[in-house]
Write a structure and sequence with these properties.
- Helix content is about 20%, strand content about 35%.
- It is α/β, with parallel strands linked by helices and about 270 residues long.
- The strands form 3 sheets. A 7-stranded antiparallel sheet has the order 4-3-7-1-2-6-5.
- Strand 1 and strand 2 form a beta hairpin.
Length: about 270
């Protein structure tokens, strides 16, 4: 189904912290077609300032009491003009929203386990993926890292889905102190010793250095890994070439693809990280 461009009404704006919020948008046509890992392009204001839309992962697919899709939510962190406007968006306001766009995650089925690796705002694609995995009966773990405890969000949401949580913070205020790739490596090494030949599926999203580390760990332990590339996108449709990613091409040569079309979900072992 091709993407649709709608004037989506803001149905709620839930602040999570001084910088993070979750916006819910009435967009049933987008919600009906969206898959975990896909994204939407949202224009935060009217007129020409800001001029361009911004990409946001589909955080949740919202449904009514009968299960019919009614809209989506997006996880926003205010770091610039557009995200500042989205942080301050009012209920009833309409935002131009184009989607769903891009290549999604492909959920696994039991008995394969799923390990989601999120850093900061990289949590964004995993609410929808977690719901999909839970509905399939897949045993799932979320490895989730942030700077401090106050920036770890939606923990009860994932607990209610039956997702196991492994947490780290840079300041040690929640979970293990340090980077999330440390417990990920420890878990991969332990898994390889206990159940060799049965690796989990790894899904990663967050800072590029974190995704590169997760993808390299997955290769070391022979686990499949898919990452959601968070490149700057001006259009989301392949026209601006602002989201180019270098991947392995024929004969080992670098080949460049647009992550809005070839991704954002891409195989971690095909990306040239260095």
């Amino acid at each position: 189904m091709p993407p649709v461009d709608v004037a989506a009404e803001v149905t709620s704006n839930q602040p999570l912290s001084a910088d993070y919020n979750v916006l819910t948008l009435a967009a049933p046509a987008i919600a009906a077609a969206a898959a975990p890992g896909q994204f939407v392009m949202v224009k935060a204001g009217l007129g020409h300032d800001p001029l361009l839309r911004r990409p946001f992962s589909v955080f949740e697919v919202l449904r009514d009491a009968r299960g019919a899709p009614t809209g989506i939510s997006i996880l926003n962190k205010r770091i610039g003009a557009s995200t500042e406007l989205l942080y301050a968006a009012r209920q009833g306001q309409r935002l131009a929203c184009l989607g769903p766009l891009g290549q999604p995650f492909v959920p696994v089925d039991p008995p394969v386990e799923a390990w989601m690796v999120a850093g900061g705002v990289g949590l964004a694609p995993f609410a929808a993926l977690g719901e999909s995995l839970s509905g399939r009966g897949v045993r799932a773990t979320l490895f989730y890292g942030a700077r401090r405890a106050a920036e770890l969000f939606y923990l009860d949401f994932f607990r209610d889905l039956g997702v196991e949580l492994v947490l780290t913070t840079e300041d040690g205020t929640a979970g293990e102190r340090g980077r999330i790739t440390v417990p990920l490596e420890r878990a991969l090494a332990s898994r390889a010793l206990v159940t060799p030949g049965a690796p989990p599926m790894i899904y990663a999203c967050g800072p590029e250095a974190m995704m590169a580390a997760a993808a390299k760990l997955a290769m070391r332990y022979h686990a499949p890994c898919f990452v959601s590339m968070e490149r700057t996108m001006g259009c989301g449709l392949g026209g601006c070439y602002g989201c180019v990613v270098a991947v392995r091409g024929p004969h080992g040569r670098a080949h460049h693809v647009r992550s809005c079309l070839a991704g954002p979900v891409m195989a971690g072992d095909q990306i040239l990280w260095d």
